[in-house]
Amino acid sequence: MAFVRLRKLRIDAFPSDHSHILLEMFEELPLTVVELVLRYLESPSPQQLVPAATLLPNLRVLDMHQEHAWCSLCNTCNVLRLKDDPVSITYTNGDGLPVRAPAFVRSVSTSPLTLSIPQKLYNRYLAPLSHLRTVRLSAAYTLDLSVGVGLQDLKTPWRGECGECTSLHLTDETFVSDWEAKNKEEPHPPSLREVTWSFALAQEEESSEEEYVDYVDKVTRVRHRFWKEVDHNSDDDSEWDYDGREWD
Q1: How far apart are CA 49 and CA 186, in angstroms?
Q2: Which of 64, 189, 219, 220 could form a disulfide with 132 if both were Cys (CB 3.0 to 4.6 A apart)?
Q3: pLDDT band at 32 (very low <50, low <70, confident <90, very high)
Q4: Contacts from 111-120 at CB under 8 Å and sequence distance 24+?
Q5: What is the pLDDT of residues 51-78, one digit of tens each?
Q6: Cα three-residue angle 235-238-243, rounded to 5 degrees
Q7: Are strands 35-41 and 8-12 parallel, antiparallel or unpaired?
Q8: Which DSSP letter does residue 141 get?
Q9: pTM value?
Q10: Which helix or strand (DSSP H or E) is residue 220 part of?
Q11: Which of 4, 28, 29, 23 lies closest to 126 in space, CA to CA?
């Protein structure tokens, strides 16, 4: 295999692509890779990490640079809505990764109704990585006074939960007690020493939604042309607009 001295691998997700597991693009990776950077994940669900244990058994550092945080309570990926500006959070005891939600989560604190939550989590998929020591995650946020709670107000660890679930569930002592007990039973990466969450205020889009859709459509058409040429092993480049007219 080429790149036998490769130590760090960075993968940038394609804009607005929700469906692909990035690591599934590779059948094999050098065992020398010890650091993985995943950037611009639109939906950073735990499924993105499933191939890591097989492809990168010597991984030591995982960096997931993303805007959307995955909430293990409601299984959504959204920009955080918080009542005040959060500060960077660092865990040095192996904690800090999104954890398993209880089998049933109450939809509101006073309601008998429950929501069934799939049992997916980062810890379980990363547990086979015996050398993993550092995980860095990022999330964008917006300020919303209606949320009613800030991360600094919590008496329990915050691990990526959305603003609504943070306000509703992580302030419920009964819920938190049961949740933390179940979390201790879950497998964790044995060498994990540091998990860091960093935050950035979400930027307002400068362009309109129509302009963004048009941009993605153009990128998709160019990518489709490229793969069409590759599939047909064609040397004819007459369809390509190398002078940039495709982007006018």
Answers
A1: 17
A2: 189
A3: very high
A4: 115/74, 117/72, 117/73, 117/74, 117/75, 118/75, 120/45, 120/46, 120/47, 120/72, 120/75
A5: 988 999 999 999 998 878 888 888 888 7
A6: 120
A7: parallel
A8: E
A9: 0.73
A10: helix 209-232
A11: 23
